[in-house]
């Protein structure tokens, strides 16, 4: 007897946005609903945030191949409607989140010390396995995020990548309450959540991005200063000037999708400060002057999503009402329009897709 438990009414077919060939528009079509394997759950995705990573997957611009055809998406929030026979810690009807790390081996040295994003066998939602731009999505039971029932699935969906990632990055920066963090790309999806997490963690924020819409939004979210990279004559001196003593921010969180700021941050970070690289502009390199890096004793680190504990903590900040970042919702059928706006850098905050439309 198969031990797969399924809720009533799970259809055999569903609508999904499929990448058939990289570099071409996504295709909205009907595909089969998959059955969960022994250690997997099936999540009826209600909403999914759209991350810039999904656009990298569509464009195929990273040095890591995607599966093809591919259903993208890794900020999926929904309801558990099925599970395999080895799963005994989820209940049908629970709220679950499909995040970037869909699964990992759980036994390599990285997994053993809860560095599961570093697992060589990690499964990546919407990249190496199908993700949340479909109505029913598979996730490994051990890795799916637990979402408390009191949370709104639409508003929490961006937390499942953007929130977890920036929360982890802020922790990695070592910035302490009262210190100042510069968020580069502050008007985007990760950036807008980073402002909220930074504030909740007692940090002061300098937002760096371009245009008046993002200036206004970042101020509403709690940033004390805005440096416009598109109009500033000298970003380095403007960022330093935005700190009270002119010595620069204690940490820099790089979430822009552009190489330039990755080559500038080391110049304005405060002595003893930390630069955290999170954004993944295609083909980009970090750069820092050796002389200043040495005599300022600066640290430059990469930060990659978060582990299961970081995920739970990031969700708990949301549950407590501390994270209220702006989002706009459109139907799943309109995903390509979101990609087009994202490509043009026109999105302030996050777009969320509603899989019922
Ligand atoms: P987004 O498009 O929503 O936001 C990017 C923002 O960067 C935009 O607001 C844009 O105006 C701004 N920007 C562009 N050039 C800039 C510059 N020179 N200075 C300041 N701001 C600039 O993208 P997102 O969804 O927030 O994702 C950001 C990046 O983070 C992507 O590359 C994504 O793949 C990556 N990412 C990394 C991780 C990780 O674990 N490290 C996780 C999720 C996303
Ligand atoms: Zn993401």
Automatic annotation (TrEMBL):
<dbReference type="Pfam" id="PF08240">
    <property type="entry name" value="ADH_N"/>
</dbReference>
<dbReference type="GO" id="GO:0004022">
    <property type="term" value="F:alcohol dehydrogenase (NAD+) activity"/>
</dbReference>
<protein>
    <recommendedName>
        <fullName>alcohol dehydrogenase</fullName>
        <ecNumber>1.1.1.1</ecNumber>
    </recommendedName>
</protein>
<dbReference type="GO" id="GO:0008270">
    <property type="term" value="F:zinc ion binding"/>
</dbReference>
<feature type="domain" description="Enoyl reductase (ER)">
    <location>
        <begin position="23"/>
        <end position="353"/>
    </location>
</feature>
<dbReference type="Pfam" id="PF00107">
    <property type="entry name" value="ADH_zinc_N"/>
</dbReference>
<dbReference type="InterPro" id="IPR036291">
    <property type="entry name" value="NAD(P)-bd_dom_sf"/>
</dbReference>
<keyword id="KW-0520">NAD</keyword>
<dbReference type="InterPro" id="IPR011032">
    <property type="entry name" value="GroES-like_sf"/>
</dbReference>
<keyword id="KW-0862">Zinc</keyword>
<keyword id="KW-0479">Metal-binding</keyword>
<dbReference type="InterPro" id="IPR020843">
    <property type="entry name" value="ER"/>
</dbReference>
<keyword id="KW-0560">Oxidoreductase</keyword>
<dbReference type="InterPro" id="IPR013154">
    <property type="entry name" value="ADH-like_N"/>
</dbReference>
<dbReference type="GO" id="GO:0005737">
    <property type="term" value="C:cytoplasm"/>
</dbReference>
<dbReference type="InterPro" id="IPR002328">
    <property type="entry name" value="ADH_Zn_CS"/>
</dbReference>
<dbReference type="InterPro" id="IPR013149">
    <property type="entry name" value="ADH-like_C"/>
</dbReference>
<comment type="similarity">
    <text>Belongs to the zinc-containing alcohol dehydrogenase family.</text>
</comment>
